[in-house]
Backbone:
């Protein structure tokens, strides 16, 4: 890990109170969040439906921090332009859903956005061997995508460690992000394995002392692992 990879927390709005989204966003911005993570689910790629462009647009209006859109949808290339226009700064697509991966990643870059690729727990790192250099963000799912509040799957941490080695060799500026089951107990192992961006929904928005204290606790636990 290099100093150019500081620990960053990306609160997942999936766990926020949607009736008071503006207040929730303000709270995590004050609390030291680095970016906001928006989970778009289509009910086909994953067994759950969340939200689309109207919520991304609303978050864009409310937020000063960058937004990252995590597209858990089939045929993501059909929506890249719309997601970019709605206000996402980073667009994360699932490798399992992108048939023409090279084209989709270049579409994101052509829209002027950071290109992110997401791998499910069982998807091997080998599957990105040809395109590592194209990535601004590599997101490894530490749960099966679809729902917040799940437990981190232990074997994914070994994959994080190998992904860090791969990025160090071929794309050291690329963020290595983890998503799912990240809390004050699991974040240290993920940080020690080499992740530098941590998505957290439940551990931020359902934190006992409020969202800001949730972020502070995560940062402290992650930094202690370095
Ligand atoms: C899961 C989503 C996650 C989710 C994380 O499919 O991609 O971003 O919101 O929630 P927690 O942090 O509660 O596991
Ligand atoms: Zn996500």
Residues:
């Amino acid at each position: 890990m290099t100093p150019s990879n500081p620990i960053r927390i990306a609160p997942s709005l999936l766990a926020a109170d949607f009736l008071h989204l503006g207040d929730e966003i303000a709270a995590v911005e004050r609390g030291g969040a680095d970016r906001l993570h928006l989970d778009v689910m289509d009910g086909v790629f994953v067994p759950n439906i969340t939200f689309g462009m109207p919520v991304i647009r609303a978050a864009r209006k409310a937020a000063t921090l960058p937004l990252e859109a995590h597209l858990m949808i089939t045929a993501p290339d059909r929506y890249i332009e719309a997601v970019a226009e709605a206000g996402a700064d980073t667009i994360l697509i699932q490798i399992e859903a992108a048939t023409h991966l090279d084209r989709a990643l270049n579409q994101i870059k052509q829209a002027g956005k950071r290109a992110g690729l997401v791998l499910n727990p069982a998807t091997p790192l080998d599957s990105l061997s040809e395109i590592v250099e194209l990535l601004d963000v590599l997101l490894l799912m530490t749960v099966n995508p679809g729902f917040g509040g799940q437990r981190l799957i232990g074997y994914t941490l070994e994959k994080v460690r190998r992904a860090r080695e791969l990025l160090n060799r071929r794309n050291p500026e690329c963020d290595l992000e983890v998503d799912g089951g990240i809390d004050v107990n699991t974040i240290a192992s993920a940080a020690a394995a080499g992740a530098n961006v941590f998505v957290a929904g439940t551990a931020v928005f359902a934190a006992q002392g409020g969202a800001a204290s949730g972020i502070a606790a995560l940062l402290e636990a992650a930094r202690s692992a370095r």
